[in-house]
Design a protein that fits this description.
mainly alpha, single chain
Length: 170
């Protein structure tokens, strides 16, 4: 693995942990003022934390595989396949949890994030299974970056949800 790629992934892992830390601090502060999150707010915070932890894991995975001794094509195929599996399963899991937390139609932002995730997944699967993308770092880097970016987008677009006090009857 080229040095710039490992530096990129290690820096991305640090940024992802920052997202996780910020979300955790938000939860603690809400608990301190005795205003716990409702089910939907909890779902949003969990989404941001899970994306941050997943981005950290997937940013460190190719560095670990390179240290173990995998050659670049195999390394990017394995990493892309692993992230591709996560990218297929995670949206279904989120949709199921969202329907339990807040019944009704999905917000437009969630639909767009799911569509972009599907496009990123296609690139990851092409990178993992075919020589079309030459088993390169590019699609994988975009995939890991998208994991973190979607958490940031949700955090920014749903910020008003975090400021709203939860309804104790819900």
């Amino acid at each position: 693995m080229p040095l710039f790629a490992s530096d990129f992934f290690l820096a991305l892992a640090q940024v992802a942990i920052g997202f996780v830390a910020f979300s955790t601090i938000a939860v603690v502060l809400r608990e301190v003022v005795r205003a716990p999150f409702d089910a939907y707010q909890t779902l949003l915070v969990r989404f941001v934390i899970e994306c941050g932890l997943a981005a950290t894991f997937y940013a460190l995975l190719p560095v670990l595989l390179a240290l173990v001794g995998f050659a670049a094509p195999v390394l990017w195929r394995l990493s892309s396949g692993a992230l591709g599996v996560f990218g297929v399963l995670a949206p279904f899991h989120y949709i199921r949890r969202r329907r339990r937390a807040k019944p009704g139609p999905m917000p437009t932002r969630a639909v767009w994030i799911t569509v972009v995730t599907a496009l990123v997944d296609m690139a990851l699967w092409l990178n993992a299974l075919t020589p079309t993308l030459r088993w390169s770092v590019g699609p994988y880097a975009v995939g890991v970056m998208w994991l973190l970016l979607q958490a940031g987008v949700i955090l920014i677009l749903a910020f008003s949800e975090f400021l709203r006090k939860g309804d104790p009857e819900v």
